[in-house]
């Protein structure tokens, strides 16, 4: 009977760890400062490839006053980002992005000197899910 208790503890430990980590990341998303960075497609001919969107920051069109000292911390951000989408939405968005000049922004959570976390994709100043729902009507 005593050999089952350590096994149970070792099986539950990773689950508890992942739960705590998820709660911590969710707390960061809700409590830390958010910033909006203007984005553009990495490859205009193939903006959506598979089920993700290739994006890169456009610092010349980003409002740098949302950062410390009114300077965009370009080295803190990655050069390119992939934003994953459901297949049906990716196909619809692919057609719209290739035929129209839409304003694309990413909402990031700043975490001190750590790499910023992507919180949401904004199209025409709306969260992408809301934008797709409204534009499909």
Provide structural commentary.
The protein is an alpha+beta fold. The protein is extended, with a radius of gyration of 19 Å. It folds into two domains: 1-31; 32-136, no CATH class. Helices cover 36% and strands 29% of the residues. A hairpin with a 2-residue loop joins strand 6 (114-123) and strand 7 (126-127). It has helices spanning 4-31, 87-99, 128-136; strands spanning 34-41, 48-49, 52-57, 81-84, 104-111, 114-123, 126-127. The mean pLDDT is 84. Strands 1, 2, 3, 4, 5, 6 and 7 form a seven-stranded antiparallel β-sheet that branches. The protein starts with a helix and ends with a helix.
Q: Could you write a compact summary of the structure shown?
A:
The chain has helices at residues 4-31, 87-99, 128-136, and strands at 34-41, 48-49, 52-57, 81-84, 104-111, 114-123, 126-127.
> Regions with pLDDT < 50 over 5+ consecutive residues?
none
First-last Cα distance: 62 Å
Tally of separate domains: 2
How many helices? The count is 3
| Helix-strand category | alpha+beta
Question: Major sheet, described briefly?
Answer: 7 strands, antiparallel
Tell the overall outline: extended
| Proportion of beta-strand residues | 25-35%
Total DSSP E strands = 7
Keyword list:
137 residues; alpha+beta; 2 domains; seven-stranded antiparallel beta sheet; 3 helices; extended
Question: How do the strands and helices of this protein lay out in sequence?
Answer:
Blueprint: H1 4-31, E1 34-41, E2 48-49, E3 52-57, E4 81-84, H2 87-99, E5 104-111, E6 114-123, E7 126-127, H3 128-136
Antiparallel strand pairs: 1-3, 1-5, 2-3, 3-4, 5-6, 6-7
